[in-house]
Amino acid sequence: MVRYGTVGTGWITDAFIKGTQMVEGLELYAVCSRERKKGEQFASDHGAKLVFTNCQEMAECDEIDAVYIASPNALHYEQSKLFLQHGKHVICEKPITVEPEELMELQALAEEKSLIYMEAIMMLHLPQRELLRKALRRIGRVTTARFDFSQLSSKYPALLAGELPNIFNPRLATGCLMDLGIYCVYPAVDLFGEPQEISTNAGFLPSGADGYDNAIFVYPDKQVSISCSKLGQSVIGSEIMGDEGTIIIHSISKLTGISVIDRDGREEKLVGNVEKSELMSKEAQSFYNYITSPERYQTEYRENNRLTLLVNQLLKQMRKQAGIVFL
Fold it and tell me: Which helix (H) or strand (E) holds 202?
């Protein structure tokens, strides 16, 4: 049994916990929240035995083996390092760190201590990933792809009212690219590799955070457009265009709503809607597999971590081009 704790009590932590309930061998054991009352309520709601109000105490606890981190981006490096230093396996929400140099440091630390350290990014662990690869071989020569994740933020009205929600606070290393754009960069790199050139632009909010972003990934034989926004809602999704057909992806973050349309307009649906908790169960299952059967899953784990580092490096390049600065 792998007993794990959580850092963060938001909706994403709730979804992850529901996902782990579908994985035999993972047990929620502890919760960490800055507010004890909030932590106690969260623990009661989810059946956790222990409640902590700071990460140091949780890291020193011998009763947990691993931790799921879902705190603000700016805290990911510091908290992940703390838990790794204390011998805990770590799965951290995206972006796993802000800077690639931080990520390389912690990947080396985890390797040194024979620990698992991975980013909680759904697409790498979904069966849809292989379905998408197979579909790609059906649509002929691909020269154009468009990956979009534009989702009107529920926190946008608060920003307009003069408040500063975490997601729009540059001091927390947040903003649209880090929150949504990462979901577009991953499939671009996973399917087509590292681009030769990148061109990125961003639109900024009064807080200094990027509210929307656009980028072009240039390859020798194709171009990939990446777009994301927290100020508007996309309804047409993403697509990959080949000379024999087109792949439509309704949700690029979840790899759901996937169809292939051939040149004659015939549509074949490959993936419909999938519940968020089920999607997150796949990354939780991988986390458990990597911990309990490291030799069996070593190649998969290392390849995913290589991809995570490449995406992190590209995000840094894109921020620099767009002028995105974390204060």
Answer: strand 197-204
Q: Percent of the chain scored above 70 by pLDDT?
A: 100
Distance CA 7, CA 157 (A): 27
The alpha carbons of the chain give a radius of gyration, in whole angstroms, of 20
Backbone region of residue 305 per phi and psi (left: phi > 0; alpha: psi in -120 to 50; beta: other values): alpha
Half-sphere exposure of 46 (CA within 13 A, CB side): 30
Please say whether the beta carbons of 249 and 255 come within 8 A. yes
174, 73 Cβ separation under 8 angstroms: yes
CA distances from 251 to 92, 96, 147, 233 (A): 22, 21, 10, 12
Place of tokens 């200094």: 208
Q: What is the pLDDT of residues 133-158, one digit of tens each?
A: 999 999 999 999 999 999 999 999 99
pTM of the full predicted structure?
0.96
Which whole number is the average pLDDT over 296-318?
98
* Distance, C-alpha 107 to centroid of its chain: 17
Query: Where do the DSSP E strands lie in 205-251?
Result: 210-218, 223-229, 238-242, 245-251
CA 14 to chain centre: 16
In angstroms, what CA-CA distances link 240 with 73, 105, 250?
A: 30, 35, 12
